[in-house]
Amino acid sequence: MFQEAFKLRSALGGAYRELEAFALAFAAERKKATQLLFFRTRSKTDTAELEKWGDEWLKKFAAGKGPKWVSDWSQAESVEPFYRDSRPHQKSSRREEVSRRNYGLDMGVTLAVFGSFPALAEAEDSQERAHWFGVCKEMVGLFCRTLPSADPTTSTEAEWHYHHWPPDEAVFKTVARRLFECNRDEQKQLWEPIVSLPVAAHHHICSFLNHLLIESLRLEPYRITELIPIWRGVAEQVFASRAPKGGWRDHIDIQKHVLLYDSIPSAREEFFGPLVEDLRPFYNQHLGKIAHDAYDQSSFSAFLLTKAGERLLIDALIWLQPRWDLASDYYWETAVEQNHFANLLDRAWHNYYPLIRADASALKAFKTLTLKLAAHHVPIALEVQQQI
Deepest of 246, 273, 314, 359, by most Cβ within 10 A of its Cβ? Predict the structure, then answer.
């Protein structure tokens, strides 16, 4: 019904705005009439209560006296308290464990009505464009208010239970689509509230980033050029923030997504090469954070063998060399087991050695990697030793 109304919005005029206001009020009422059951995994809606509401407001709506539009959706929501897990295992946890709460509006109604607005360029005037953009901002706020960070009693050191719901994905898709229709200031208003969430929300942040990458590939030609300034802003935000005590690993996971080596498989393809080039300053900064982590460095080494990441290969050898010199035997044993360093040496030897030999720093790094792997009897390292 609401999709058809979009096509008739010129004819409907003010009545179309009233239809949106009615839909928002209905989404709030439907949420209010829904009771959570079975440890929040199921719900039950009081249909009698909804029918009573409908009987009252449908008559008023028909008479032109329907619900008023609420531009700040937090004033329309029916919110519940944040749920705190009291299961016995929590007593053994070193960090407080908290859960998110459900959306304050019925998301089936909300997404059906407000998740399919046309492109901003199709708005009839600046007022309608501002309205559509404002609705997208409200959807971001609606999502963020479900998370424990919206609870002032939640400690910044608290551990969050992993709750990722289908409406989250729908919100992320809507925001990702809008980002390619906005100016720079508007873009930041949409992505910053999500990217600035506490690192405990790393699953949600990374999911949003994945949707943004996918959106850049949805149309041909791919919109990598348009993506780069958006992504650079995200990277600057992420790398300027500091990981809280107890949240170092979550912070690293977000950085890995930003740097594309723990992201969707398509991020390793050649068409993302220009984005990798733009992110070049952040890679060395990130490697300093994982200087003693053989697993993360191995994953990064695997990324260097992809079409997008290979352009960093020689520089990455130079960045990693000081860390390799200080690494423990345990580090190298782990690296050998992962095998990505061996593949990196193989690629460097067969594809880049003339360039490496011409750069003193790169050659030093190449020799360090060869010696460390040869000490663990890695075949490619022994082969390189014999030949040089």
Answer: 314
Q: Which residues pair with 240 in a beta bridge?
A: none
Quick one: pLDDT at residue 80?
85
| Residue 167 near residue 107 (C-beta atoms within 8 A) | yes
Q: Which helix (H) or strand (E) holds 241?
A: none
Q: How far apart are CA 352 and CA 359, in angstroms?
A: 11
Sign of the C-alpha dihedral computed for residues 51, 57, 60 and 66 taken in this order: negative
Please give the structure tokens belonging to residue 212.
Answer: 């943004």
Render pLDDT for 58-97 as a digit per residue (tens, 0 to 9).
888 878 888 999 999 999 998 888 876 644 444 445 567 7
Q: State how far the alpha carbon of 167 is from the alpha carbons of 24, 146, 237, 269, in Å.
A: 16, 11, 25, 29
304 in Cβ contact with 312 (< 8 Å): yes
Question: Phi then psi for 34, rounded to 5 degrees?
Answer: -100, 125
C-alpha torsion sign, points 243, 74, 185, 220? positive
Contacts of 200 (CB under 8 A, 6+ apart): 148, 149, 158, 159, 160, 247, 250
Cα–Cα distance between 262 and 290 in angstroms, integer? 14
Structure tokens at 375: 């000490």
Interhelix angle 340-351/294-303, nearest 10 degrees: 40
Biggest CA–CA distance in the chain, Å, is 90
β partners of residue 37: 42
Q: Is there a contact between 299 and 256 (Cβ–Cβ < 8 Å)?
A: yes
- Tens digits of residue pLDDT in 224-267: 999 999 999 999 999 999 888 878 999 999 999 999 999 999 99
Q: Does a cis peptide bond (omega within 30 degrees of 0) precede residue 281?
A: no
Q: How far apart are CA 249 and CA 239, in angstroms?
A: 14
CB 371 within 8 A of CB 321: no
Distance CA 329, CA 40 (A): 48
